[in-house]
Amino acid sequence: MTDPKIDPDLWPCGLMVMDGAGHVQQINATLRRWLGLSDAPAAPLRFVDLLSRAGRIYFETHLRPLLATQGHFSEVSIEMERPDGSRFGVFLNGKARLVDGAMAEAHFCVFQNEQRQRFERELVAKRRESDEFRSLVRSSPQAIVSVDFNLIIRAWNPAAEKLFGYSEAEAVGQRFDMLLIPSEESAKFPQKLLRLAAGEVLRSETERRHKDGHLLPVERSIAAISDKSQEYAGFVAVYSDISARKAADAQIKTLLHEINHRSKNLLTIVQVIARQTGRLYQGAEFLSVFNKRLASLAANQDILIKNRGENAELERIVTTQFAHLIDPKTPQVRISGPKVVLNEKTSQAIGMAIFELATNAVKYGALSQGKGIVTLTWEVSGGQRPELTITWAEAGGPQVAAPTRRGFGSQATGPILESYTSGKTTRDYAAGGFRWVFTAPLEPLAQREENWTDAGLGEDTEAHRA
Predict the structure, then answer these.
(1) Domains located in the chain, CATH noted
(2) Is 178 helix (H, G, I), strand (E, B) or coil?
């Protein structure tokens, strides 16, 4: 080994010779350096002592028999072990010299593969990360869209299919701005791309176009993608459907408007009831009458709340107005009529009118006598413009006469009710008993009305001037 051209210690690979018994006969400086061995080992080395445990098993069960039968092997990946226990990977090539069919010695050429193993490990790790990322993207409940530098869609997950209506095959390859961006936002889109390229992450609520053409309210988060040179290469957009949240927000706003609206209505009605009651009653009598009228109003409100504040059936309204004065199921009270649904304004007005009629009947009319009877009926006329007619008829009570003064009861059953409903009322103080009739077009009574706070209740209305 004195000729530099063939000196094995100068070779950049490991070289080793093993005898038939498995002992190392020769090992070059390169392999000794890799293994951390001294130039002159204290004891003879066995080849398998230079391998890891798994390497030893593999050599004895696979490689040694292969050398004995086939005479050679090449590029076998195996681990070698240093005296300190550390390991390193190599590619092992072996060739045997056989004598009479038995291996007399074997020559090995060893190449380190740590860099390759490291590269393979990194490749496997990146592939695993890529697979995990791809799995996360596909299973994400949020729509994820990947777009390249030329605004061409390159990735479209199942959530995007569900949100926007386009299948992956339909979306991939299309221009992002042509597929999803509403026309009114197109002019601003190039400026947003510049912000993305500068490194800004865009987060906001916006709208995106569905396959069927309608606009979807979405929450978006868009971030730039960089290439290997850290140059802008496109972006990833993540979208969440906020349709339900927007609908809930709109419902809350509507409810707040309704609360404000109804509160004003109720306060106005309470104010008028207090003012009108105070003109005719004082002290304890005022409190008694005022409380009963508020109870009537509250009963109407209960019915409306149970119907979500939109409408109420006439039968429930009139029955409730008797409850604070007399059992509506008593034989003295006869109530009948078809199903009629009224809006909030009409329900309040008719409820107050019936309460005043019932109060008057209990105090002065038919219900003040044991044999007196009140018959309350309503009917709806046919035709293109149906009308609702409500009739209150008393019988068996004391002699009746027209009142000498007009209090809140007269207002509630006359001018106020008429101004609420565009209807007409008539009264007949006949000797046989008091009779009251209300007639109005049915359609306006059932329609939902948004603003009626001061309808028929202002200080200067004709009802109050009367």
Answers:
(1) 8-117 (3.30.450.20), 140-241 (3.30.450.20), 246-465 (3.30.565.10)
(2) helix
> 433: which residues sit within 8 A by CB, 6+ positions away?
365, 366, 393, 394, 395, 396, 397, 400
Q: How far apart are CA 286 and CA 301, in angstroms?
A: 22
Mean pLDDT value across residues 251-278? 69
pLDDT of residue 157: 92
Helices (H) and strands (E) in the chain, counts: 17, 17
Calpha distance 324→284 (Å, rounded):
18
Q: Which of 80, 71, 94, 10 is nearest to 45 (CA)?
A: 80
Identify the H or E element spanning 132: helix 114-139
CA angle 391, 392, 397 (to 5 degrees): 150
Cβ–Cβ contacts within 10 Å for residue 124, how many? 10
Look at residue 422 in the predicted model and tell me its pLDDT.
87
Whether residue 261 has pLDDT greater than 80: no
Task: Report the pLDDT averaged over residues 217-241.
Answer: 90
46-50: long-range contacts, CB 8 A cutoff, minimum separation 24: 46/22, 47/16, 47/18, 47/22, 47/23, 47/108, 48/22, 50/24, 50/80, 50/81
Distance between CA atoms of 91 and 73, rounded to whole angstroms?
11
pLDDT level of residue 139 (50, 70, 90 thresholds) = confident
Contacts of 54 (CB under 8 A, 6+ apart): 79
Q: What is the pLDDT of residues 75-121, one digit of tens each?
A: 998 999 999 999 898 999 999 999 888 899 999 999 988 777 777 77
- Token pair recorded at residue 349: 């007005």
Tokens of 162: 């569900």
pLDDT tens string 37-64: 877 665 688 999 999 999 999 999 999 9
C-beta pairs of 301-309 under 8 Å, 24+ apart in sequence: 301/266, 303/347, 304/344, 304/347, 309/258, 309/262, 309/344
What's the CA gap between 23 and 43, in Å, rounded? 11
Strand, coil or helix: 174? coil
Place of tokens 């510049």: 194
- pLDDT tens per residue across span 283-317: 888 888 778 777 766 766 666 555 555 578 888 88
Cα(139)–Cα(156) distance, integer angstroms = 12
Q: Is 101 left (phi over 0), alpha (psi -120 to 50) or beta?
A: left
Interval 377-386 mean pLDDT = 88
Calpha distance 242→216 (Å, rounded): 8
